[in-house]
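Technical annex B. To support the medicinal chemistry partners, we prepared a structural model of the target in complex with zinc ion, based solely on the information shown next.
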Amino acid sequence: MGRAIGSLDWTPEYIVPVPMKPSQARNRFEQLLQFGANHFDEDIEVALDGLGCIKEIENYKQKNPLERAEAIKGAFTSDFTWNGAKILLIDDVHTTGGTTNECVRVLTANGAGEVRVMTLAKDQRVFARKTCPACSRSMKIRVNHTTNVKFWGCSGYPTYCQNTEDSGT
Ligand SMILES: [Zn+2]
């Protein structure tokens, strides 16, 4: 995982895991992160308590996406004031995206400057995503067909947001 993070074209200041239910305070995922913390650059801080889960969600797997989105509202909290920090949010299972979206929302509401999501699948493949710093919508890699240069474009384009970001490639 350290290698996966090292291969990103972007260095986070904090690594925050998607929090577990209060009843699952400690799990293998957090242990992995704690262990991995020694392998990151010194200026990357693993903040295991960067997000907290304050609400048990019953029967989450039985719910449809709309019910899940409703159930997840207010489930997470962050005691940190992030002061514009760059945060890599790590999820170990990517389900509907509702959980990670809510985590991104809470982090941004607490002052995070930029949040990207990395999902650690069983095979440790990496899915990097980027959240628009201007409007918090997700961004997608797009290609300028004239110059062939890749860039991040906001998914709110063109109606809500015209922000673009350098993709670093
Ligand atoms: Zn935007």
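Notes passed to the chemistry partners:
Residues 132, 134-135, 137, 154, 156, 161, 163 surround zinc ion (CB under 6 Å).
Confidence is low (pLDDT under 50) at residues 122-127.
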